[in-house]
Amino acid sequence: MFKFIKSLFKRISRPSKNMDTSLNLINFPRPSGDENHDEAPPIYQFSICVGKDPKENEDAEPVLLHQDKKGLLSVFDGMGGAGSTIYKTKNGESHTGAYFASRIVRYVIDRHFDYFDKSRAFVMNIDTLRELKDDLVGHLQKNLSAFEKNPSRLKSSLSRKLPTTLASIYFSADKDCKVDVVWAGDSRAYMLDADGLQQISRDDIKSSSGEYSDMTQDAPLSNCISADIDFDLRHFSFRTKLPVILFVATDGCYGYVNTPAHFEHLLINTLLKSKDDQEWGENISAVLEPISGDDFSMSLICLGWDKFASIKSAFENRLKEVQEIISPVDAVINKINALDVKIEAYKQEKENCIIEKKEVYSQFWDSYKATYEKRIRESE
Predict the structure, then answer these.
(1) Domain extents for the chain?
(2) What is the topology classification, in CATH, of domain 10-314?
(3) Nearest Cα residue to 296 out of 133, 102, 22, 93
């Protein structure tokens, strides 16, 4: 295990208004404050975390850490279906297993990357992944044991205990950028540069044909972090040139737009409408909140730019390119939407006709039955 010492990173993310700091779980110290924040060199970044119900947001607050040329981005999406069992803390606070799972995993990830031993340079490899997985399993099972001593009502009979997804990017930027991606589930890691958006994690889903249909279907997960079923931490490492934008996002961010290209358009369009990085995050939230059917969170950092205006300038042409790419898709979708409007109008017109039919039939029968039923009535 790592020896935990004073943080090598400065915390630069501003706490979300939905962030929960009241939990009293096993070994969950409060995160340290933003000491020496003013001394940090300027860097463009933000994190967002919005819950459909802020009190039950199953996405944990994202991690956004950096020091000098190194840093960590992470998001955590508690799985509300499989993790809908209600657990109670020793203090009597009740939430879903998904809610607790994302926060337990957040704590472990934060600790592993924020307090690793100065005596050795951090390297993501089989050994460090094994250490991380062991720590995740240990904390999940320890907390599960405590929860089961304080039983609460069950909301679901599904078997997963404390299930959550994870997507993390550890980066080291100098002349270029070394990127290590670690994930489990369908929370995603991305990079964005002048060439466009690239997904740099592969969704752990049971359908894996690689066709675009995989992206449009809500396929079941083949792998996620949980306390009771074995899981894998996926890892992908590469180098990329600077400047670059790196970010991680839960499925509430990308899952409610038509295509990945539309997601890229959303990101760049909001960027160009923003005066600074914090407004960029706010603008993304403002676009996603009305359309997302889920909690959503994102952690993003821009590397290699000295001014926010330079970031905007770098993507002006790309926005035009993406607009051209998505135009045919939008045209078809607009046709379908127009037909849906007509269909709804015809449905209403048909309902009105059915009502009218009943009235006409009643009037018709009243006038017609006198002759039609004359002999029948005589036979009675």
Answers:
(1) 10-314, 332-378
(2) Phosphatase 2c; domain 1 (3.60.40)
(3) 102
